[in-house]
Amino acid sequence: MKNFVKSTLLIVCVVFSLKLFAETPPEQKHRLLVLTDIEADPDDAQTLVRLLLYSNQIDIEGIIATTSVHLKDRVAPESVKAIISAYGKVQPNLLKHEPGFPKAETLLSVVKQGLPIYGMEAVGEGNDSEGSEWIIKVLEKEDDRPVYISVWGGPNTLAQALWKIRETKSKKDADRLISKIRVYTISDQDDSGNWMREEFPELFYIVSPGSYFAATWIAMSMRINGIDNETVSNDWLAQNIQQGHGPLGAKYPDVAYSMEGDTPSWLSLILNGLNSPEHPDWGGWGGRYEFYKPEAKESDPKVSHGGVPIVPETRAIWTNAEDTFIPRIKNNYGGALRKDTLTFTDNRVTLWRWRDDFQNDFAARMDWCTKSYEEANHPPVLALGHSEEFTVKSGEQFELDASGTSDPDGDNLSYWWFQYREVGTLDKDMGFGGKAENLYRIRNIVAPQVNKPETVHYILKVTDKGTPAISRYKRVIVTIQPN
Predict the structure, then answer these.
(1) In-domain check, residue 243
(2) What is the rounded end-to-end Cα distance, in angstroms, of the chain?
(3) pTM, rounded to two decimals
(4) Which of 12, 25, 192, 332 is the most buried (most CB within 10 A)?
(5) What are residue 34's DSSP bridge partners?
(6) Which pLDDT belongs to residue 266?
(7) Residue 48 is part of which domain span?
(8) What does the pLDDT read at residue 307?
(9) How far apart are CA 267 and CA 338, in angstroms?
(10) Same structural domain for residues 315 and 177?
(11) Is the pLDDT of residue 282 over 60?
(12) Of 254, 289, 320, which marks where a domain is finished?
């Protein structure tokens, strides 16, 4: 009888556990189309190497070789294919670490090309290409998820697809297809970008128009005075990415101008608990952007650094936003974490504040190309003792709780809770009443007095002590109601 009861209880527990698992759906992967002027500059090849290491977390539905102001009369799909072929040699080992890495043949089947023509000369009647037709085909799939279009060069192949959609579809069908598109283009690298923003005013579009050096993406590799820039140094790249990491790492070229300037256009698609690409103003690994019409200044250049004319915007776009950031640094004695003495404020901060995290994540995944599971590091698995969104009233106490967080490798974990003030509506700092920020559970936080509902975004960052150290996040949104 005892054995029967124990067996019955075991079955009930297993069924209940499976039910819980079934009711907690995994985070949905995002759809991605890439437009790349690969061979204009080594940075597109660098970006592609990194992207392939996340091909199990992102549904890559097309990689289209295009022109740009830096590569006006040729496209290079063969260079894309060579890097994918190198990926194919390490794909079996990547599968030892996480499931879902597609076969190289699958990725090669979605490599396409646009016309070897610059800018608006390739837009209009008679300018359809394999690439523009593929964009339309992907948009027409029976899939309700948005299609994120990451533009690393000139976007004229997308412009041609939009032109054809408008010319050949009913307004209802055209509006439906265009509503699926989420464009993030790295500055303007031909003259079709501004045309699209003017001709398709409802098109979701992230861009830093104007000077390259004022753009958010430049923070991917720029040297920041006052912080440690080691993870974007050439020595770091050689040791952690290029050498001793198999055939894919060997395809990562040296920096010529800037390291991976195009990578921010898809970094926010990675499923890390922080990123929320449908909310560019929430911030994430790809930076933070706000929706407004940027005004041209007398001091602004008239052309980009590549020579693309800079013209006034005719409507609001998603573009540069500012963060104020005080780094936290490690203490050798006493509390393990303390504020730095420096404060940084500008649009580039929105990206480089996460830079060590995404560089270490890249290095860890590059290790997966050659190492066994036991030899490599893997990200912590975060959990909360409460909902990711909840409501309290002014004067009430609440807590932030990371109970249940674990690490698959058994590594020790460091915690950091902080308010992302630029994102919430509450215009004040929500401190923790003198409590340390690096507790896994912070109790007795008092909601302030408010006159209308206000939101506070708290970010939990958990970092393991493996090598390289990997970070994951949880975003907690607290709504404060007046009494």
Answers:
(1) yes
(2) 57
(3) 0.92
(4) 192
(5) 63, 150
(6) 98
(7) 30-320
(8) 87
(9) 28
(10) yes
(11) yes
(12) 320
Find, among 141, 112, 139, the residue nearest to 128 by Cα. Answer: 112
Of 296, 320, 344, which closes a domain?
Answer: 320
Task: Judge contact between 52 and 101, C-beta under 8 A.
Answer: no
Spatial separation of the C-alpha atoms in residues 104 and 60, rounded to whole Å: 12
Taken as a whole, the chain contains a residue count of: 483
Separation of CA 187 from chain center: 17
Q: Do 303 and 192 share a domain, yes or no?
A: yes
- The four Cα atoms 184, 359, 87, 369 give a dihedral, to 10 degrees, of -160
CB 324 within 8 A of CB 291: no
DSSP secondary-structure letter at 26? P
Q: Are strands 328-330 and 323-325 parallel, antiparallel or unpaired?
A: unpaired
DSSP 24: S
Determine the Cα–Cα distance for residues 114 and 37; give it in Å rounded to an integer. Answer: 10
Assign residue 159 the CATH number of its domain. Answer: 3.90.245.10
Contact at 8 Å (CB) between 37 and 70?
yes
CA count, 13 A, side-chain hemisphere, 273: 22
150, 172 contact by CB (below 8 A): no
Tokens of 276: 């929320």
User: Number of folded domains in the chain?
Assistant: 2
* 273 and 412 within one domain: no
Whether 329 and 340 have beta carbons less than 8 Å apart is answered as yes
Cα 202 to Cα 196: distance, rounded to the nearest angstrom: 10
Work out the angle at residue 39's Cα, subtended by the Cα atoms of residues 38 and 41, and round it to the nearest 5 degrees: 95
299 and 440 share a domain? no
Q: Can you point out the beta strands (E) in 288-366?
A: 289-292, 317-320, 323-325, 328-330, 337-339, 344-346
Q: How far apart are CA 463 and CA 336, in angstroms?
A: 13
Q: Do residues 153 and 37 make contact, with C-beta atoms less than 8 angstroms apart?
A: yes
Q: Are 464 and 380 in contact (CB under 8 A)?
A: yes
Q: Which two tokens stand for residue 126?
A: 């008679």
Whole-angstrom distance, CA of residue 13 vs CA of residue 17 = 6
Distance CA 123, CA 286 (A): 29
Peptide bond just before 92 cis, omega within 30 deg: no
Mind listing the pLDDT tens digit for each residue in 5-63?
334 333 333 333 333 333 334 679 999 999 999 999 999 999 999 999 999 999 999 99
> Are residues 295 and 386 both part of a single domain?
no
Q: Which amino acid is at 222?
A: M
CA separation for the pair 227, 444 (Å, rounded) = 34
The CB density around residue 124, as the number of other CB atoms within 10 Å, is 13
Is residue 313 domain-shared with residue 425, that is, in the same domain? no
Which residues, 6 or more positions from 477, have their beta carbon under 8 angstroms from its beta carbon?
A: 388, 389, 424, 455, 456, 457, 458
> For helices 130-139 and 156-168, what crossing angle results, to 10°?
60
Looking at residue 438, its pLDDT comes to: 96
478, part of any domain: yes
